[in-house]
Amino acid sequence: MVSYFFVDEIGHPDRNGPFLVPVSKMVPITKGVARAAIEQLLAGPTPANRDGVPSITSLIPDGVRLLGLDVSEGIATVDLSGNFEADDDAAVAAQRIAQVVYTLARFPSVQEVLFRQDGSDIAVPIGDGQLVSRPVNIGDYLEFAAALHVEEPAYAGRGGNPLHVSGFGAVFEASFSYALTDDDGLIISEGIAMTNNGMGWGGLDFTIDYTVDREQLGALIVWAHSAENGSQIDVREYPVVLVP
Question: Model pTM?
Answer without folding.
Answer: 0.92
